[in-house]
Amino acid sequence: MTEPIESESWRLAEGWSSEPRKRGDNGSSTSPLRWRARMTSGANAPFVGRPRSEEASRAIREATLNLLARHGFAGLRVDEIAEVAGVSKATIYRRWPTKIHLAADALSGLPDLPTPDHGDLESELVELVMGLYGLFGNVPLADVLPALAAERAQNPELSAMIGPAIRDKRKPFFTVLRRGIERGELPSTLNLDVAVDLLVGPMVTRTLVTGDVVDERYVRTTVRTSIAGLIEIAERS
Predict the structure, then answer these.
(1) Can you tell me the mean pLDDT for 189-211?
(2) Lower CB count within 10 Å: N or C terminus of the chain?
(3) Which 8-state DSSP code applies to residue 54?
(4) Are 104 and 197 in a shared domain?
């Protein structure tokens, strides 16, 4: 079941704290974002100070991803997210009604892959796969996805929430493949969903399962093999 995030009404009482950054056990500084809030019986007050509000949201999303990678979804706790992000729990409660919403939003907030447009199908697909691999290295995505995959099998609500976020990150692949069809590089009968799975699958397998090297030479080989196989199958059907 979804662990609800408390829904009490909170109001910003004293603005942003002027307290200096605190140092963690490892010497790293925590975020200076510290709400001083108090519970009230009225409606939620509007956010004060847009830049800091946006910075708080980014810090919360980053903390959520890091803690998902460390503890999995079942071990994700709002109080720990607040501590790591350097915000109060009230700041989190105002933005996300449950931790499922928070996890899905954190995943959605990952950088989008730029959609290349060089007029050449192979080079565009290689660039996309390498870009996705780079995303795995720059954020704890390689640990977050297995943690969420395990939970999705038991939690339909979580699966329904994060499914669109994951599919959204695949959109550039569909765009590039459709352009390839328009240019005549791919048959119009191509199954786009299968094509994207084949293009992304080898990189994901090496990243999450085998730990083998992923470089441009490997990616170019898998892209060429996938395209050739897809064309042959599409022409036979």
Answers:
(1) 93
(2) N
(3) H
(4) no
- Residue at 77 is within a domain: yes
Burial 41-77 (b: 16+ CB within 10 A, else e): eeeeeeeeeeeebebbbebbbbbbbbbbbeebbeebe
pTM of the shown model: 0.71
Percent of the chain with pLDDT over 70: 78
State which H helix or E strand residue 231 sits in: helix 216-236
d(CA 117, CA 26): 44
Tell me what the mean pLDDT of segment 215-226 comes to: 96
Please indicate, yes or no, if residue 34 is contained in any of the structural domains: no
Give yes or no for a contact between 106 and 61, defined as CB atoms under 8 angstroms apart: yes
d(CA 215, CA 226): 17
R_g of the chain computed on alpha carbons: 22
Q: Comparing C-alpha atoms, which of 63, 39, 50 is closest to residue 16? A: 50
Q: Give the integer Cα–Cα distance in Å for 63 and 151.
A: 19
- Could you tell me if 135 and 223 lie in one domain? yes
Encode pLDDT of 42-67 as tens digits: 333 333 333 368 899 999 999 999 99
Domain count, the chain: 2
End-to-end Cα separation, the chain, in angstroms = 44
Statement to judge: residues 129 and 230 lie in one domain:
yes
Q: Specify whether the CB–CB gap between 35 and 59 falls below 8 A.
A: no
Domain that holds residue 71: 52-109
User: 137, 206 in Cβ contact below 8 A?
Assistant: no
- Listing DSSP states for 123-170 in one string gives HHHHHHHHHHHHHHHHSTHHHHHHHHHHHHTT-HHHHHHHHHHHHHHT
